[in-house]
UniProtKB/TrEMBL annotation:
It holds the Pfam family DUF4431. Keywords: Signal. InterPro entries: DUF4431 (IPR027826). Residues 1-21 form the signal peptide. It comes from Duganella aquatilis. This is DUF4431 domain-containing protein. Residues 90-135 form the DUF4431 domain.
Amino acid sequence: MKSRLPYIAALLLAQVPTAFAGPDSCMKYEPKTVAVIGKLHRETFPGRPNFESVANGDEAETGFYLSLESPICTVGGSGADQVSFESVRKIQLVLNEKQYAFLRPKLGTKVILQGQLFSAHTGHHHADVLMRVSN
């Protein structure tokens, strides 16, 4: 049985106006919906109270991240969550419980995700750019 992934990805991407991550065009922040391709992985960072060391008692903040196939740039705006970046290689994913459950078996694999981008603006953001995943 042939893999349906290329067909499903093409169908999915045809349904939504998207901008692919690539070296030739910068991506816009929300409300624009974009698509990115990369390897899905999990990372843990120190959180409250000091954001310094899990071993020394800070809470562990574990999340899913996308290491992009090709670096992207972003077009800044007027808000604190719309900072311009030249060479983004990693995106922190903002997911709900169902999205975490759906993506967990895909850790370590290449995925295509759609959503809205915004730039880091709190101590809980561990990448320059984040994505509110919509698919």
